[in-house]
Amino acid sequence: MRRARGFTLVELMVALAVIGLAGAAVALTLPPSDDVLVKETETFAARLAHARDEAILGMRTIEVGVTARGYGFSRRRFEGWQPLEGRAFAAVDWAPGTQPQLPGRDGRMAFRFDPTGAAEPGSLVLLREGRRARVSVDGGGEVTVDGSAR
Length: 150
Hints:
Blueprint: H1 9-29, H2 36-58, E1 62-67, E2 70-77, E3 80-83, E4 92-93, E5 99-101, E6 108-113, E7 122-128, E8 131-137, E9 143-145
Antiparallel strand pairs: 1-2, 1-6, 2-3, 2-4, 5-7, 7-8, 8-9
């Protein structure tokens, strides 16, 4: 009689256990998907970068105005500042519990991107549940997120 070659049931069970442990280790190293501060910070940074791109493509200065309630987008026209139209530039309210750290007494700040994409350097700190995250814009219009919230 010929002996059949292959894996035994025990060998297959050990291989499945090792794969399961490796998968669990990977899953535990992923950032939590329900972290509102990280989502809020990354969304704001992405929308700032989109506003910079719109300033370059539209050849007009774009302003992202930030208040304690949320942020919105405006374009510089000859008549003054006009809200940007379109779903991509709709005004956004901060998630409940997220507070921006705004300078000054008026409770407002703005990021402006000129038609070359350049901007006046500035940063905004978002606070939530004792944690903080910073979104910064440098003179070249580059938007960065401080990794402390991640």
